[in-house]
């Protein structure tokens, strides 16, 4: 995953995108000026000709720069790989059209940076690519090249995406960020509101937003339903957000960060209120379109979360011989659990395990929240030297976890003044960035082949 810029890292989604209408259209000053006002579409229309915007080859010329079908294919391969290949055949055409739109935006960003003499150097792109390769293939510098080629993409495709993101960051730094101001009073008010909310629940939410006009609502709703179905079938939510979302958080996989439900539109706060971590809801209609939400996690504001406790654990496990029946496995698992509980603490468990042919693995840096939900609750109720119930299967064997130590988290004092100011600034930058990109799209000359 390419690391997002600081401008998108704390950004909140632009949840309501609506068409502003005026009561009376302004009169154009001359024949070359577009008239601003309401877009009027009659209820009963007749289509002349067969202009199907979805029936086109995935190539385009954007202000003279060509986007080839090969570029689309290679970017599609990245998305398919990120979703472990779980893209239905009937979804591929829709995916290709979305990828083409993404490439058009990327091209516009690169062109704008070049026009303002902020063009990203190849050395900068190569350095970012090298860092990304090191993160994913630390022992093999060429591993990224081989991986991309194997899945049907290419290093050039990923480097182009990197160049687009770096170009956009450069443009925001010059043209947007310097003109965003947050006063100290605003920061103090935000921090006071946060303190007043101490103990209330805070939600870590991911969002995919699809814009819709009254005319396109039905089609967009169906697209959103298909996205939900794919995520439920195992597709990566963050990968789907990067591909389909039209919110400013698409570059960070739709991650809204930690928020309180009151910060969301009423429709979304109501839908998210009953979610448990990992659950999905949507499509939810809001002003301007539809949203799909996933609850990544939740916590209490400015309150120590027990799940942030650092646990020292010993895992004791036994394997079953091939052909072991369920009845025999249950008997052996019961005897195993009795023996381990009889160890009476971590100091003696290694010797007991050895006597019954079990293996022991130790880890003293396990964060409770990183464990599966049922195990989190079980382990956080244990005292030192106690064990979890046995778990596993006939095929994979049986395991138990013994608690050998626990460091509880400190009470969260909340964000520092500088962090809060940075978050508020980034919120405003993201909103202006969205408007900036809309302007680039509006002024573009695009030919489809």
UniProtKB/TrEMBL annotation:
Pfam families: Rotamase, SurA_N_3. Keywords: Isomerase, Rotamase, Signal. It comes from the Bacteria. Residues 1-22 form the signal peptide. InterPro entries: OMP_Chaperone_SurA (IPR050280), PPIase_dom_sf (IPR046357), PPIase_PpiC (IPR000297), Trigger_fact/SurA_dom_sf (IPR027304). Residues 200-297 form the PpiC domain. The keyword Signal applies. GO terms for molecular function: peptidyl-prolyl cis-trans isomerase activity. The keyword Signal applies. This is Parvulin-like PPIase. The lineage of its organism: Bacteria, Pseudomonadati, Pseudomonadota, Alphaproteobacteria, Sphingomonadales.
């Amino acid at each position: 995953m390419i690391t997002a810029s600081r401008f998108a890292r704390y950004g909140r989604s632009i949840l309501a995108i609506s068409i502003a209408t005026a009561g009376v259209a302004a009169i154009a000053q001359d024949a070359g000026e577009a008239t601003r006002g309401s877009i009027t579409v009659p209820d009963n229309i007749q289509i002349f000709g067969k202009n199907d915007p979805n029936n086109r080859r995935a190539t385009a010329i954007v202000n003279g720069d060509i986007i080839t079908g090969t570029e689309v294919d290679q970017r599609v391969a990245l998305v398919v790989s990120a979703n472990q290949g779980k893209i239905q055949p009937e979804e591929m055409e829709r995916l290709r059209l979305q990828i083409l739109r993404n490439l058009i935006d990327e091209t516009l960003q690169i062109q704008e940076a070049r026009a303002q003499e902020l063009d990203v150097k190849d050395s900068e792109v190569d350095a970012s690519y090298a860092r990304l390769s090191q993160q994913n293939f630390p022992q093999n510098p060429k591993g990224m090249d081989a991986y991309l080629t194997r899945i049907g993409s290419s290093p050039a495709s990923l480097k182009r995406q990197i160049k687009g993101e770096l170009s956009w960051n450069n443009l925001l730094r010059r043209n947007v960020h310097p003109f965003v101001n947050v006063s100290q009073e605003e920061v103090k008010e935000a921090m006071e509101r946060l303190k007043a909310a101490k103990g209330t629940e805070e939600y870590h939410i991911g969002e995919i937003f699809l814009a819709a006009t009254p005319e396109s609502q039905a089609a967009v709703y169906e697209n959103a339903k298909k996205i939900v179905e794919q995520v439920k079938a195992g597709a990566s939510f963050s990968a789907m957000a990067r591909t389909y979302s039209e919110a400013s958080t698409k570059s960070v996989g739709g991650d809204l960060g930690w928020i309180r439900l009151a910060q969301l539109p009423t429709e979304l706060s109501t839908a998210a209120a009953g979610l448990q971590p990992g659950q999905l809801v949507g499509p939810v209609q809001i002003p301007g379109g539809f949203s799909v939400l996933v609850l990544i996690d939740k916590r209490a504001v400015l309150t120590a979360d027990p799940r942030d406790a650092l646990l020292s654990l010993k895992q004791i496990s036994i394997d079953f011989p091939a052909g072991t029946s369920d009845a025999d496995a249950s008997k052996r698992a019961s005897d195993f659990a009795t023996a381990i509980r009889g160890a009476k603490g971590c100091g003696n468990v290694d010797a007991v395990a050895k006597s019954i042919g079990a293996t022991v693995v130790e880890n003293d840096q396990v964060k409770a929240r990183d464990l599966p939900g049922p195990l989190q609750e079980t382990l956080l109720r244990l005292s030192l030297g106690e064990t979890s119930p046995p778990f596993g299967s006939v095929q994979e064997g049986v395991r138990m976890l013994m608690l050998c130590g626990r460091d509880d988290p400190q009470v969260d004092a909340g964000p520092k003044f500088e962090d809060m100011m940075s978050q508020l600034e980034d919120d405003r930058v993201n909103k202006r960035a969205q408007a900036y990109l809309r302007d680039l799209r509006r002024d573009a000359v695009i030919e489809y082949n």
